[in-house]
C-alpha cells in the first residue's frame, strides 16, 4: 500500500519549490483506513515526498449509492 501511495504522489502537481497541490483520493472504508494509517506513519519524513504531502484521503461510499439506486429502481418497476 505504501508503494501505491508513493506512486500516486509522483502524479501530484507542484505549486512551488517544495509544495504540492493537494488532491483528493477516494476509496472504500478499509482502503481509506489503511491509507490514513500509512500517511500517519510517514508523517515525520524529511521531505514532502517522504511525508506524502498533498494526498487527501476521503471515503467514497460508492456501494451504498449503487444499492440506493438499485432499491429505488425495483420499487418503481
Description:
It contains 4 helices and 2 strands. It has 77 residues and is an alpha+beta fold. A two-stranded parallel ribbon has the order 1-2. The protein starts with a helix and ends with a helix.
Overview features:
77 residues, alpha+beta, 4 helices
Mean of all residue-level pLDDT scores? 90
Query: Based on DSSP secondary structure assignment, what is the total number of beta strands?
Result: 2
Low-confidence stretches: none
The fraction of residues in strands falls at: 5-15%
- Characterize the largest beta sheet: strand count, sense, and whether it forms a barrel: 2 strands, parallel
Query: What spatial order of strands do you see in the largest sheet?
Result: 1-2
| Number of H- or I-type helical stretches | 4
Order of SSEs: HEHHEH
Q: What is the helical fraction, as a range of percent?
A: 40-55%
What structural category arises from helix and sheet content? Answer: alpha+beta
Distance linking N and C termini? 42 Å
Based on CA inertia axes, which overall geometry fits?
elongated
Radius of gyration of CA atoms, rounded to a whole number: 17 Å
Amino acid at each position: 500500500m505504501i508503494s501505491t501511495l508513493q506512486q500516486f504522489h509522483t502524479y501530484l502537481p507542484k505549486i512551488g519549490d517544495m509544495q504540492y497541490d493537494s488532491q483528493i483520493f477516494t476509496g472504500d472504508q478499509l482502503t481509506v483506513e489503511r491509507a490514513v494509517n500509512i500517511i500517519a506513519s510517514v508523517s515525520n519524513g524529511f521531505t514532502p515526498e517522504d511525508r506524502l504531502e498533498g494526498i487527501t484521503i476521503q471515503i467514497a461510499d460508492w456501494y451504498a449509492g449503487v444499492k440506493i439506486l438499485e432499491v429505488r429502481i425495483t420499487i418503481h418497476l
